[in-house]
Write a structure and sequence with these properties.
Elements lengths: L2 E6 L2 H9 L4 E4 L12 H10 L4 E4 L11 H17 L3 E4 L10 H11 L4 E3 L9 H11 L3 E4 L10 H11 L4 E5 L7 H8 L3 E4 L11 H19 L1
Parallel strand pairs: 1-2, 1-8, 2-3, 3-4, 4-5, 5-6, 6-7, 7-8
Helix pairs in contact: 2-3, 3-4
Length: 230
């Protein structure tokens, strides 16, 4: 059955998501900049309370995905802290100044994860050639890719997402993310045939998780699964 990963930016949202049926959480801070590494004390509290898998975003600054040596060391330390606390997986992505994959930097962070599953995030969507990038991400050993199909959001990138899913040949989990809401989820399910969808379930300007929206999205996924069983 297709599953929903909820992007949560504070403790209360993570608890509410877990209590209302989310399949997995991506925990981060600061929704306004697309997420950065969360406060490790908040992460600790979430992991102590939540019984579903929690992935942690590792991104030490907003803006681009090019990191200095000292920033990579900081991210390494955050990866080790998250792993020690019991995170189910880690989410990051390092690029070179020309927006191609920084193989060495990603290798460094993957090594720090010591075998925990790692997801390459939406830095993928600004690669000049996503076919080359996809092959590099698979070769590096990432377990999943979070992407809007090289577009500003998953709706705009839906045809590329469908194509990427075929290209991955099940070598990597494809997580569709970027502006996914109950309004476009049925069509995205139909077009992409993906198994994972990623959403903050935020529907207003307040940047607070909308539990009704979360429930609606879960209902759509359940209906889709039931329809395919018959």
């Amino acid at each position: 059955m297709p599953a929903l990963e909820v992007a949560c930016f504070e403790y209360d949202a993570a608890i509410a998501s877990a209590n209302n049926g989310a399949h997995r959480i991506e925990f981060a801070a600061d929704y306004t900049v697309g997420g950065i590494t969360p406060n490790l004390e908040s992460l600790k509290q979430v992991l102590a309370k939540v019984r579903i898998p929690v992935q942690v975003l590792i991104r030490c600054k907003p803006g681009n995905f090019v990191y200095s040596k000292s920033e990579l060391l900081q991210m390494e330390a955050d990866i080790k802290a998250g792993a020690d606390m019991g995170a189910a997986g880690l989410v990051f992505g390092c690029l070179l100044p020309n927006n191609t994959i920084d193989v060495e930097a990603n290798q460094q962070l993957l090594a720090a994860a010591q075998g925990l599953p790692c997801t390459f995030h939406r830095a993928f969507d600004i690669l000049p050639n996503y076919n080359i990038g996809l092959n590099q991400i698979i070769a590096l050993g990432f377990k999943a890719l979070l992407t809007a199909g090289s577009s500003i959001n998953a709706w705009e990138g839906r045809d590329t997402l469908a194509q990427l899913l075929v290209q991955t040949e099940q070598k990597i989990d494809l997580i569709c993310g970027g502006g996914i809401r109950s309004s476009n989820l049925p069509q995205l399910l139909q077009t992409t045939k993906a198994n994972w969808f990623h959403s903050a379930c935020i529907t207003s300007q307040t940047q607070v998780l909308d539990i009704a929206e979360l429930s609606q999205m879960l209902a759509i996924l359940a209906q889709n699964a039931a329809a395919h069983e018959h």
